[in-house]
């Protein structure tokens, strides 16, 4: 048991005991003190060593297992299976962006900090507690009982026809839009949608416009096709039209990538006027728009109007993600492709991975058909509406006048701006020490240069932690402003200023 | 019921009655006589109309449902959901190749014929009857009970660590190979493996070598990167080394794509000497090899040696598919990437679809860990060994001396050659009229020019149908040879000679 001496439990901490044990063991694994294949001590031995209830150790081991650090072998015990952390986006308690960014020089930024995070405002993924696991289980079993082995065959590449039917009904009911059956391509998540559109329509050197800031996964996909990416400033009511028209006059793009509703990372939405203007410009300058609809279901005021709803001239490729709000592990989304471009897109999908899982498509079909999706989204909307109000209230209460922030109409992001000259990358470091994580704004720009802005997400944090978390964040900001030079000198491996 | 008058049942036919009803209804749907949203007559009404047992109609409706033509609504009945057939690979009772090919001008080739196929020697997919559905169901429920919502979270991009562990053990036990943990990238099927390697390592105009004939999905993936593809002749014991060296002297490739074991479409394997020589050439000319291991588990003589086993100088990217023999609907495979190239590959994977389903990865992990995979493969090997022997025996019995064919050591393909000047594309048409489907050889070459060779797969056909099917095929061949000019004039939309 000697190895475990280094784990010091603090009963007065806000972090539950099981999590403290979990954190301690993860540290030992990460530092190579416990190695792959090694057996962990039995529950009771561990419990008496730490002087805690057995259930606490059970929970710690369980958490280690679901995070993939250990495996339990029946009748034998619990064994470590070491997970190299370098490619693990979940480890940070943050979001999918991190992996992509960690490949661009920021690996060290997120190291050895995850476990000290008490207030996670970084992650864009919804906490697993909100997943409708029992409904999913019921549906999965129903599919297997109904279709047997056929549920697990190769699926036709464009998608499982009944799911397309369900999607048509869903789009009609939710958005009043009639999606032609033949224009639906099922895909393995929104990222794949961006990737196959890039594959189908971009050649080396083609120009793509993105919002600035924007979702870095999109930048990666376009970059991998050798595209020349141009950033257009994002404002609170959508794209900066002056900036856009100036750039259009020089080099119009082939594709324009946008999240017009509750944008990632700002949370901002386009005004009706800007939506109309964007469509008009696409027609005039002959480019196509990729509308990435990641969370339009999470509206707290009025139901948002999709850009696609205004698309009279087939200029918009619409991507609807089901993973964001639902079950990321299912990897399902759909693409609405104007008919003229369907075959090209379908071939790009086919050569990417043949098809998305037919099994999941059948499960998703039942989910939509039985009204479980609507039920789930309504429940989430209620929960997130509450969190949104709490976050806003906490910002009003705790932020000083110098800190600017918006109030989005939906989604789970706020965008905050530090006073000029104070960079969110530095705030990131200070906040971490206070147990708070945020996503520094530079990560959402091509250049990744330090910026004042940063993203505050309430996707993961629990309702009751919000106020405390924002307070801690505010303290961190005050600390930054009071000691602006103290943190600029970081260790060499840190991409500070 | 008037619409159903056109369906004529033939009780003396080899096609079961339920399938005749199914076929008839599919025809009505395809021809637009029954349309989407229309309700099918109740079971009993249908049964009395056709003068068959209710169970027959139930089976027909069930089959329509699993094929996605209809959906049953609880308490309401069975409704048509029209499936545009054009992108449906399953409709032909054939394989994944068809979709990709159907995008290249052969759409019409496969139309309106699927339902007359009694002897399917075209499909490369294993029949769903062989899938271990109950084991899969047990494992899926175990995962959900064990991990709850965590099973459905975003998965780290490189894969679920315990699955990597299981793969390491599997590769050790099966092939005596030690795969480093850090060199495993989980992917969504073998096609994605090819695609992300193309993405990571090819630039526009780069040269890729493929075997001729080869798997067309690979050609698509390379082509989508703008690669210049060069074909190297395939012989019975592997690549034609003279052809290879001649081409290497001119323009060495960046990548060489191969299936060294039980190749698709020929079923041939490389000799040890050719494997060694290929590795040596890769080292000398500095190119990388993609080894696509699609069915090396299905050996009927000695266990095959992987090319990767000879790879002392990290020249081989190894792709192992689990979908081919197992559950295509799960879309799981893994890539063994030499360490030096891992980050680049991982980024290509990430920008393609973030990660493969963590849920399926957990299920696959349990499958491997509990020995269910080994059990399944051993069972399949026995079944397929029997089918392999039956196919070979039938070829010996029914084929005339003019028809050449090989005897592969494993897998589920034979490669047959018609006498010089007789093209398999024409045989395809004649065979179909006899209820037999094959894959004409031209589909596996870049040029798609007519060839004498064709692929005979026994993946789908049942053991007891093999002899009859080969006999019918032999009759078709005789017909072709006796009337070589009769079929060259096809309808305009057919890509005949």
Write the layout of secondary structure elements.
Two copies of one chain form a homodimer.
Chain A: H1 17-30, H2 43-50, H3 54-66, E1 70-73, E2 77-80, H4 97-106, E3 119-120, H5 133-147, H6 161-175, E4 184-187, H7 190-201, E5 207-212, H8 216-223, E6 228-235, E7 238-239, H9 241-250, E8 255-258, H10 272-285, E9 288-293, E10 316-321, E11 333-336, H11 342-353, H12 358-369, H13 372-398, E12 404-405, E13 413-417, H14 424-433, E14 436-437, E15 439-440, E16 453-457, H15 466-482
Parallel strand pairs in A: 3-14, 5-6, 5-8, 8-9, 9-10
Antiparallel strand pairs in A: 1-2, 4-11, 6-7, 10-11, 12-13, 13-16, 15-16
Task: Give short descriptive properties of this protein.
homodimer, 497 residues, alpha/beta, Arc Repressor Mutant, subunit A, Aspartate Aminotransferase, domain 1, Aspartate Aminotransferase, domain 2, 8-stranded mixed beta sheet, 4-stranded antiparallel beta sheet, 16 strands, 13% strand, globular, disordered C terminus
Which chains share the greatest interface?
A: A-B, 86 and 86 residues
Strand order, largest beta sheet of chain A: 4-11-10-9-8-5-6-7
Low-confidence stretches of chain A: 84-113, 486-497
Instruction: Give the CA-based shape of chain A.
Output: globular
Question: What's the helical proportion of residues of chain A?
Answer: 25-40%
Got a strand count of chain A? 16
Name the average pLDDT of chain A: 87
Residues in β-strands, percent of chain A: 5-15%
Overall CATH architecture of the largest domain in chain A:
3-Layer(aba) Sandwich
User: Which fold does the CATH topology of the largest domain in chain A refer to?
Assistant: Aspartate Aminotransferase, domain 2
């Amino acid at each position: 048991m000697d190895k475990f001496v280094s784990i010091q439990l603090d009963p007065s901490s806000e972090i539950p005991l099981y999590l403290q044990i979990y954190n301690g063991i993860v540290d030992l694994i990460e530092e190579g003190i416990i190695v792959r294949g090694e057996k962990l001590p039995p529950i009771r031995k561990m419990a008496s060593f730490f002087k805690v209830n057995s259930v606490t150790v059970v929970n710690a081991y369980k958490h280690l297992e679901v995070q993939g650090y250990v495996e339990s072998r029946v009748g034998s015990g619990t064994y470590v299976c070491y997970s190299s952390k370098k490619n693990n986006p979940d480890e940070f308690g943050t979001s999918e962006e991190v992996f992509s960014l960690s490949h661009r020089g920021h690996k060290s930024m997120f190291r050895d900090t995850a476990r000290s995070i008490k207030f996670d405002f970084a992650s864009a993924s919804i906490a697993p507690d909100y997943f409708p696991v029992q409904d999913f289980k019921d549906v999965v079993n129903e599919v297997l009982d109904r279709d047997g082995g056929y549920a697990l065959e190769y699926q036709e590449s464009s998608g499982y026809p009944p799911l397309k039917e369900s999607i048509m009904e869903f789009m009609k009911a939710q958005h009043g839009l009639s999606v032609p059956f033949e224009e639906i391509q099922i895909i393995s998540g929104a990222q794949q949608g961006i990737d196959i559109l890039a594959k189908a329509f971009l050649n080396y050197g083609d120009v793509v416009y993105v919002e600035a800031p924007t979702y870095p996964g999109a930048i990666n996909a376009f970059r991998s096709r050798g595209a020349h990416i141009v950033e257009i400033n994002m404002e609170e009511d959508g794209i900066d039209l002056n900036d856009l028209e100036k750039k259009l006059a020089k080099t119009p793009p082939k594709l324009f990538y946008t999240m017009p509703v509750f944008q990632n990372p700002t949370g901002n939405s386009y005004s009706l006027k800007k939506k109309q203007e964007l469509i008009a410009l696409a027609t005039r300058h002959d480019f196509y728009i990729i509308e990435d609809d990641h969370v339009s279901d999470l509206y707290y005021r009025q139901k948002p109007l999709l850009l696609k709803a205004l698309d009279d001239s087939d200029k918009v490729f619409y991507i609807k993600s089901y993973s964001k709000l639902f079950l990321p592990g299912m990897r399902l989304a759909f693409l609405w492709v104007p008919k003229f471009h369907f075959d090209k897109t379908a071939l790009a999908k086919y050569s990417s991975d043949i098809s998305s899982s037919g099994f999941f498509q059948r499960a998703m079909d039942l989910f939509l058909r039985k009204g479980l999706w609507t039920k789930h989204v309504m429940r989430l909307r209620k929960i997130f509406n509450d969190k949104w109000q709490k976050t806003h209230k906490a910002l009003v209460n705790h932020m000083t006048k110098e800190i600017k922030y918006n109030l989005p109409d939906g989604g789970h992001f706020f965008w905050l701006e530090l006073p000029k000259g104070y960079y969110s990358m530095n705030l990131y470091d200070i906040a971490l020490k206070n147990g708070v994580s945020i996503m520094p704004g530079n990560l959402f720009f091509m250049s990744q240069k330090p910026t004042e802005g940063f993203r505050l997400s309430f996707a993961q944090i629990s309702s009751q932690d919000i106020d405390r978390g924002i307070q801690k964040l505010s303290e961190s900001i005050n600390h930054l402003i009071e000691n602006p030079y103290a943190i600029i000198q970081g260790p060499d491996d840190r991409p500070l200023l």
